[in-house]
Amino acid sequence: MERKTKIATVLSVTIGLLLVSIPLFAHHGTGASYSMDQRLTLKGTVTEFRMMNPHCQLYFDVKDESGKTVHWSAEISSVFHLAKAGWKRDSIKPGDQVTVILSPSKVGNPAGVMWTIVLPDGRKMERDDGREAQ
Hints:
The protein is α+β, with helices and mostly antiparallel strands and about 130 residues long. It has 3 helices and 6 strands; from the N terminus they run ααβββαβββ. Strands 1-2-3-5-4 form a 5-stranded mixed beta barrel.
């Protein structure tokens, strides 16, 4: 193989690998979407719990001051962290009455990033469950 061809091949492979790896650096910070310095405490009824990556999700209904049902969602930690702490897909079930402490969406949507969920039996799921001490 000619020297120019080898250089072109190495350069092409390097550029290709860089282009393919760009999405790996695209992870968002929670501070971009949520008001991390604020906390809301909401009591509601679970409609769905999704234990999936990249973030587990909790969907729950809350009655507002006028009695209208508001459908909320809360972003939770990863499957890895929750599973490491002993949580399972059926740890939270539709119909469960929960208390959720979250940082709300910056744009006012009924969504947030979860800090704590208190389950009907009193167990708590914390945002950092299963993570090593930093």
